[in-house]
Design goal:
The protein has helices at 14-19, 23-35, 43-52, 70-82, 93-97, 106-114, 134-152, 168-175, 210-218; strands spanning 4-5, 20-21, 39-40, 60-61, 64-66, 88-91, 118-121, 158-160, 181-187, 199-201. The protein is α/β, with parallel strands linked by helices. It has one domain (4-218): Alpha-Beta Barrel (TIM Barrel). A 3-stranded parallel β-sheet has the order 5-6-7. Helix 3 links the parallel strand 3 (39-40) and strand 4 (60-61). Helix 7 crosses helix 8 (168-175). The two termini are 15 Å apart. Zinc ion (ZN) binds at residues 66-67, 122, 126, 162.
């Protein structure tokens, strides 16, 4: 789980620092994964493998990027392509609709989708989904799915909870949608059909180099 992949802006606070991996560091991560024989897969592939028993590559890895920052297009996309990797990008659709300059445009999202990247839902506005009405959840979640579908042509069936938060109403509502897997910010790598809507991830934090990434992967529960 990555957030910002960009040079650290001047006067960044601790939160921004903790969420930022530099493009050079990110490139060294992907180079390391490629040299170690990892193959990037999507959450669709893992879901199909769990459902049908289809074979996955021997060292599968899913790279996810939350919040649809412009730097995902500027830095992440070309580096993934250089190493023949793919990524899963969670898009906040209203930020794109209002052309927020820090977030990707629909043209960029379409280009990445056409190149084989998974462009998935991270709601319309990135509001918390905890203690919300059913109608609000429909608006945030279905609204973003429909918006993405209308722009990229495929319906996104993967979801990421804003700031990793959800409650039983969120899960009940998601269960009625076409979403097949949803990711949290909880720590882990174990995917089953039982945690389809609560798939854990490993957080790549700011300043984590290749040694840190290796440590994270090798000690993952
Ligand atoms: Zn987010």
């Amino acid at each position: 789980m990555y957030h910002y992949v960009s040079p650290l802006p001047p006067n960044s606070d601790n939160i921004r620092e903790g969420l930022t991996v530099s493009p050079q560091t990110f490139r060294s991560h992907v180079e390391y994964l490629a040299s170690e024989g990892y193959t990037s897969i999507s959450l669709y592939e893992i879901n199909t493998a769990l459902e049908t028993g289809s074979q996955l590559p021997s060292k599968p890895i899913i790279l996810t990027f939350d919040d649809s920052y412009t730097d995902h297009y500027t830095y992440v996309f070309p580096i993934l392509q250089e190493f023949n990797f793919t990524g899963t990008f969670f898009v906040i659709t209203d930020y794109t609709d209002v052309q927020n300059p820090n977030h990707m445009t629909w043209e960029q999202i379409q280009e990445m989708s056409n190149a084989g990247m998974s462009m998935e839902s991270h709601t319309k506005t990135h509001s918390t989904l905890v203690e919300r009405s059913y109608d609000f959840l429909v608006w945030e979640i279905i609204g973003s799915i429909e918006s993405l579908e209308s722009h990229i042509g495929d319906r996104p069936d993967i979801f990421s909870y804003p700031v990793g938060r959800y409650d039983s109403t969120t899960l009940d509502m998601l269960d009625t949608t076409s979403i097949i897997r949803a990711v949290t910010t909880e720590y882990g790598v174990y995917h089953t059909m039982h945690n389809a809507l609560l798939s854990p991830r490993l957080r790549v934090s700011g300043g984590m180099g290749v040694a840190g990434l290796r440590n994270l992967l090798e000690n993952a529960p």
